[in-house]
Design goal:
Helix content: 10-25%
CATH topology: Double-stranded beta-helix
Strand order of the largest sheet: 5-6-3-10-13-8
Shape: globular
Distance between the termini: 55 Å
Low-confidence stretches: 119-129
Number of strands: 19
Radius of gyration: 18 Å
CATH architecture: 4-Layer Sandwich
Largest sheet: 6 strands, antiparallel
CATH superfamily: Mitochondrial biogenesis AIM24
CATH class: Alpha Beta
Number of domains: 1
Number of helices: 3
Mean pLDDT: 83
């Protein structure tokens, strides 16, 4: 499998399948275009309970699996808002914990599971509630970034406070808490990697909503 990122404002990742049988999966409706020689099927990927769990994390109950039936077939997955697409070699990171909606697509050797925050005080990650997504396993996954991507590699004991909605993902096993003073802030303590995004889409959507004329 090979890939390339296309576009700037609303990018897509285009996958080139080298061999028949290679595949990618995404949430239902995540595919943008594909060539001849790609077959699709849908399933709950891991069973009904895992599918229901993904729904609580902002993904689809059913996942779409795309498999090459001949070499040289291509398929593309596009971002839903302006920003970037981040390639992630899952085996190199040891796993990442992501916010809702960050997952775009992945190889079948990558696992996408729902995970719960460890304690009540950490239950407001990014303003998104108690449920996060855990990406583990091996292979390539691709994440959606709203705006521009910023990567922070924290040294042992280094602390980073991040405003609500600006966190995309953080390395599995990192210490994190939530500070509820003057707005919600996620507090990460190194060592570990944190992936940030410059656009807080919830804030952006709120500003747009204020501009919509009322029917009163």
């Amino acid at each position: 499998m090979q890939y390339k990122i296309l576009g700037n404002t609303m990018p897509a990742v285009e996958i080139l399948f080298d061999q028949p049988g290679e595949s990618m999966y995404t949430q239902s409706g995540g595919m943008a275009w594909m060539s001849d020689g790609v077959e699709m099927d849908t399933n709950t990927r891991g069973g009904l309970l895992k599918g229901v769990g993904r729904m609580f994390a902002g993904e689809s109950l059913f996942m779409a699996n795309y498999t090459a039936s001949k070499p040289g077939a291509t398929i593309a997955f596009a971002s839903t808002v302006a920003g970037e697409i981040m390639p992630l070699d899952v085996s190199e990171t040891g796993g990442m914990i992501c916010q809702k909606g960050a997952f775009l697509c992945a190889e079948p050797t990558v696992n996408l599971n729902v995970t719960l925050t460890k304690k009540l005080s950490s239950g407001f990650f990014g303003g998104e509630g108690f449920i996060l997504e855990e990406i583990s396993g091996a292979g390539m996954a691709f994440l959606e970034i709203d705006g521009d991507k910023i990567i922070k590699d924290l040294a042992p004991g280094e602390v980073l406070k991040v405003d609500t909605g600006n966190v995309v993902a953080f390395q599995k096993g990192m210490a994190y808490e939530v500070e509820m003073v003057k707005g919600l802030k996620n507090i990460f303590t190194g060592p570990g990697r944190v992936v940030l995004q410059t656009q807080n889409f919830a804030e952006f959507a709120g500003r747009i909503a204020k501009m919509i004329p009322s029917k009163n």
